[in-house]
Description:
The chain has three domains: 3-73, Alpha-Beta Plaits (2-Layer Sandwich); 82-162, CATH 3.30.300.110; 184-356, Vaccinia Virus protein VP39 (Rossmann fold, 3-Layer(aba) Sandwich), CATH 3.40.50.150. It is 29% helix and 30% strand. It has helices spanning 16-25, 52-61, 82-86, 92-96, 121-131, 188-197, 213-221, 234-246, 260-268, 287-293, 313-326, and strands spanning 3-12, 36-37, 41-45, 66-73, 103-105, 108-111, 137-141, 154-159, 164-169, 172-177, 203-206, 226-231, 253-257, 274-277, 299-308, 331-344, 347-356. β6 (108-111), α5 and β7 form a beta-alpha-beta unit. α6 (188-197) crosses α7 and α9 packs parallel to α10. It is elongated and about 90 Å long.
Amino acid sequence: MMDRDSVGVRVPKIYGEKAIVLANSLKITDRELEIQKDEKFIYIPLSREPSKTEIGSLKKQIPELKVSKYTFHEKKRQARTVAELLENQLAPHLLASLPHAIDFVGDIAIIELSQELEPHKTAVGEAILKTHKNVHTVLAKAGAVGGTYRLREFKLIAGEPKTETIHKEYGCKYHVDVAKAYFSPRLSTEHKRVASLVKDGETVVDMFAGVGPFAIQIAKAKEKVQVYAVDVNPYAVELLKENIRLNKVNSKVHSFLGDSRQIVRERLRGVADRAIMNLPEKAFEYVDVACEALKPEGGIVHFYNFVNASETVDNMKLRFADAVKSSGREVKQILLSRFVRETAPYEWQMVLDAEIR
């Protein structure tokens, strides 16, 4: 910590708080220096020499105040970003390849680490812990999302060795295990958006529910609603059940373990005013199942799919309409089409809100 001589005011301790307020109101406090004190006095650093009028105003309220040169400690500057914290440890080209995006799931931070940063992963992880005080664990992605349960592998690079946490989102809490059940904090706005569209009295089938972010958000937002939440991953369904209890929506959200094709045909055929299809990897394979879940008079489908530079939005709409037609239904209108998030260079997750009859 460096010392610096600077103009300041000295006041008896009894007037310390009052003097600080007055100096702040005149906007002459030097915030880069620390306020000092000894047995009798408090010393407040000033950013400039006060004018005679300002000194007069100060002394009018605190007669014992004295303006002079004093020695102050410089405040220790806190690094505000990971790059600032690492600027003396990593070469410029490595600083340029630091991850630009961090996914925060509860108190877990998840990053994509480039190959050239691999030898420095511990330093990067520790820097994230220091700059994000609510983070206790830093994980690096160690593979792509894959398999029936849509999971990816992670490696611990700093903090507590864990993959389970509690994530908060728009007034809801979710038990999440990022290694055992799919969850993306980047879909939080989409969870909220869909919940806002549901009307009281509706029945919703969430065909690929995971730990319940769509289902529970809907149940918390609406008084009279029934949500049937289906997932094939037993770990996800166990967490879903915990989250139903945690958010006190037991009477509105009903969990089912199994493939949505089988569950809909056996138990949920023709019950839904609205179906949610957040399985972009296999969305087109389940369009017929969503159509089966809808009531005979029809309803709304929220259809999620990946698109890339080689496929236009219009092309995806046509493919979706054809799949609906093959299921014996018809797209009355596309209510909305939008990009939800970028998933890879030149690839996006997209949603279609479609009214089906």
